[in-house]
Design a protein that fits this description.
The protein has 392 residues and is an alpha+beta fold. It has 10 helices and 23 strands. It has helices spanning 31-35, 204-222, 257-264, 280-295, 298-303, 318-322, 328-341, 346-360, 367-377, 381-386, and strands at 4-13, 22-25, 39-42, 45-47, 50-52, 54-58, 61-64, 76-85, 94-97, 100-103, 109-110, 112-113, 117-118, 136-141, 149-152, 155-158, 161-167, 172-175, 177-185, 189-197, 229-234, 241-244, 247-250. The radius of gyration is 20 Å and the shape is globular. It binds zinc ion. Residues 261, 265, 284, 287 line the site of zinc ion (ZN).
Length: 392
């Protein structure tokens, strides 16, 4: 049936701290997709082969809490069948529009922050995300209708099958693509594929060239791009871009700074993760910095005015921006990058970010981790960042 996706999820999870529950997030039930008819239903849930009762404290949260204790260091196997109704024409990460489908944050995802616990921040109504996900090894089988193909996170080793190793999420775009492929050296070889959905007047080779150059430049600045593939899909009805590990979704007319920004997210969000509900600036401010470096637009970025309601609040959580959506971009993206610029010489900022990546790769970074890395390069970094509302 058009607009329906079904799936079977199996997760092997080894908590590193004992817990009395399992928490999965159902992001398609957040305010934006739900307003356009999106709906993700999940269950029944089994844990180690036994069906378990679940609770949904809100539509985006599925909790398995039967009273049993999940011990640190002991693996549990969880299965969850799910059914997704896609929102039509959504300018969003999950959508069916113009004969193409975007599947981002689309399956029940385990919301564990290693050494901390469950991430239960509320969903956002902004063009943004509040997700937290731990790095995992994904084995993905996709069946798509004939005449369509999928571009996804990870390595496709045979028709319909991908392995996405050491990635914190998997994004998929489905359409009828005109493709272009090349190898980037970032510095290890990375097979880059760009797909343009039928009917879009965009040049796959132009985006391909832009991605290759940007991956190579950002790898030289922040450390190696860690995966063997990168795919970018251009699909209709999307304004701007959306990042997943090894896969980016972009809409028409996004060749320039959007591409640089989304490639930058491969380091800040994908490789070094963060709680996007609690610390949205940590991926958006840093990706905006990488964008400014790649686009040589740092001067213009620093000169951009930040709205009064957001000034000095770059570190505020998504819940704050929920009531100030019009100020979110300049207060978090722009101001977050301006806070980095206030550290001094841009080469020192890049050095600090490279150190942050080296220390936090595959983990979930926290503001204190970034402040510590910055402090190793710029001794009064904590005070400088603090003036922008960034603290541990
Ligand atoms: Zn971004």
């Amino acid at each position: 049936v058009a607009g329906r996706v079904t799936g079977d999820l199996a997760v092997v999870f080894t908590p590193d701290v004992a817990t009395d529950r399992l928490v999965f997030r159902l992001w398609p039930n957040g305010p934006r997709p739900a307003a356009l008819g999106g709906r993700l239903e999940a269950g029944p849930v089994t844990v180690d082969g036994q069906e378990e009762p679940t609770l949904s404290p809100d539509p985006t949260t599925l909790v398995v809490a039967s009273g049993r204790r999940f011990e640190a260091g002991r693996a549990v196997r969880v299965t969850i069948p799910w059914r997704l109704r896609l929102p039509g024409g959504a300018d969003d990460r999950v959508s069916i529009d113009g004969g193409a489908i975007r599947l981002g944050s689309f399956f029940p995802i385990l919301a564990w922050e290693p050494s901390v616990g469950w991430a239960t921040e509320p969903a956002t109504g902004n063009f943004a995300e509040a997700s937290t996900a731990t790095t995992a090894d994904f084995d993905v089988t996709l069946e798509v209708p004939s005449g369509f193909e999928a571009l996804a996170s990870g390595v496709q080793d045979r028709p319909g099958h991908w392995t996405a190793t050491a990635m914190r999420d998997v994004g998929v775009s489905i359409g009828r693509f005109t493709k272009a492929t090349a190898t980037a050296h970032a510095p290890e070889p990375v097979v880059v594929t760009v797909g343009v959905h039928a009917g879009l007047a965009e040049s796959a080779p132009a985006y391909l060239q832009k991605v290759v150059v940007t991956l190579e430049e950002l790898a030289a600045r922040y450390g190696p791009y860690p995966w063997p593939t990168f795919t970018l899909a251009l699909t209709p009805g999307l304004g701007g871009g959306i990042e997943y590990p090894g896969h980016v979704m972009q809409g028409p007319g996004t060749l320039g700074r959007t591409t640089s920004h989304e490639v930058g997210h491969q380091w800040f969000y994908a490789l070094v993760g963060n709680n996007q509900g609690r610390d949205p600036w940590l991926d958006e401010g840093l990706a905006t910095w990488t964008e400014a470096q790649a686009e040589r637009s740092l001067t213009a970025l620093v000169a951009t005015a930040v709205p009064l309601t957001g000034r000095g609040r770059a570190g505020a959580p998504m819940a704050f921006w929920e009531t100030n959506p019009g100020t979110y971009y300049r207060s978090v993206y722009v101001q977050g990058a301006q806070a980095l610029a206030a550290l001094g010489d841009p080469a020192l900022v890049d050095c600090a970010l490279r150190l942050y990546v080296a220390l936090e790769a595959y983990d979930i970074g926290r503001p204190a981790d970034l402040i510590r890395a910055a402090g190793a390069v710029v001794p009064d970094a904590a005070a400088r960042l603090g003036r922008f509302g960034i603290g541990p």
